[in-house]
Write a structure and sequence with these properties.
It contains 6 helices and 19 strands. The chain has 342 residues and is α/β, with parallel strands linked by helices. The protein has a 15-stranded mixed sheet that branches. The chain has a 4-stranded antiparallel sheet with strand order 16-15-13-18, with no helix packed on it. The structure holds zinc ion.
Length: 342
């Protein structure tokens, strides 16, 4: 494969307007060595691109989540420029610092990029990454895809997600793009965490879909395929990509389930530090009071385990990846089945 010629530029120098394809390395000064972090960004502006309209797909907001980065990287190779009618921006790895170390957060400053939005130029490098997205990328896009996975913390079925407080036309369009991932499950969840990429995009009126595409710091084929479908579908639906592009694959619409994880009690916390024995797997459909898992305390070897019970009729969306859990950690994410608007 021919080597891609990358343009090196400062964050404010990126060109998302001019027609054509440009592959960038956007430079952020390294905090401790003579050098820079280089964020790869591909911008494709087709002949029908409109101001403030476009689709951006972002991977590796967290550095130990891999399905999104792989699917976006693949797309930078496979997307034929002639098929792109509008504007596409692909950022396979946003937090290149955390990606290098394979950690959720940036090692240099100990900061979780997904708590720093909208970002700041006068703070540490992680804040500069989010500031770049907010000020240089968001103004050119009306659709934002933020592709995550469970890292080493949570085990998820691949599913797209959005905030439960998104309403009206924005909600219908969001649901439609979430369905395009072709996953069985989609999650609507609470909007209480400050500094999220998706909250910032939603507040700006963008059609915003997040996703949890795998777990265990691995690369799952289902998650990569879902990410690819979700991106292609979003680009076709928003008129950015030629409509003849193949949209086949994935779970059919009738079988897709929307769950609301913002319902009180959906995130069940561990009452003590111990080892969790799941009795069901993610995706299980349960009745209120069914036992999801048993929490064991091996320092009290003769004590009965604590039963973790389903708070309502619903679906198990997430479980811990690791056996050992700490007091206060979310050990089950549940969701109540609700009706689609789209
Ligand atoms: Zn993540």
């Amino acid at each position: 494969m021919a080597k891609t010629e990358r343009i090196t530029c400062a964050p404010e120098e990126i060109d998302c307007h001019s027609p054509g394809r440009r592959d960038y390395h956007v430079l952020f000064e390294h905090p401790s060595i003579w050098g820079f972090y280089r964020v790869p960004v591909t911008v494709i502006v087709g002949p029908e691109a409109e101001d403030e309209k476009g689709v951006v797909a972002i991977g590796s907001v967290h550095g130990d989540e891999y399905e999104g980065p792989v699917a976006i990287k693949n797309l930078t190779h496979s997307l034929a420029r002639g098929d792109v009618r509008g504007r596409v921006i692909l950022i396979p790895v946003l937090n290149v610092a955390a990606f290098k170390t394979g950690t959720r957060d940036t090692m240099e400053d100990g900061v979780n990029l997904n708590r720093t939005f909208p970002g700041a130029t006068d703070r540490t490098v992680t804040y500069k990454f989010s500031d770049f997205v907010t000020r240089q990328i968001f103004p050119h896009c009306h659709v934002v895809l933020d592709l995550h996975a469970g890292g080493r913390v949570m085990k998820f079925l691949p599913f797209p997600s959005f905030h439960a407080d998104v309403t009206g036309q924005q909600r219908r369009q969001t649901e439609d793009l979430a369905r395009g991932f072709g996953c069985q499950l989609t999650s609507a969840y609470h909007n209480m965490t400050p500094g999220l990429l998706v909250s910032t995009a939603e507040a700006l009126g963008k059609i915003t879909v997040g996703a949890e595409l795998g777990f265990g710091q691995s690369i799952g084929c289902q998650g990569v395929q879902a990410a690819h479908r979700g991106m292609i579908h979003a680009m076709v639906k928003s008129g950015v990509l030629d409509s003849s592009t193949d949209l086949e694959g994935g779970v059919d619409r009738e079988s897709q389930i929307l769950i609301d994880s913002s319902v009180p009690g959906s995130g069940i916390l561990a009452d003590f530090t111990g080892h969790m024995e799941p009795l069901v797997d993610v995706g299980a459909s349960l009745r209120k009071g069914d036992c999801i898992a048993r929490l064991h305390n091996f320092e009290r070897i003769d004590a009965s385990p604590l039963e973790v019970l389903a708070p309502y009729d619903g679906i198990v969306a997430g479980l811990p990846t690791r056996a050992k859990v700490m007091e206060g950690q979310m050990v089950v994410m549940m969701g109540k089945v609700i009706e689609w608007m789209a």
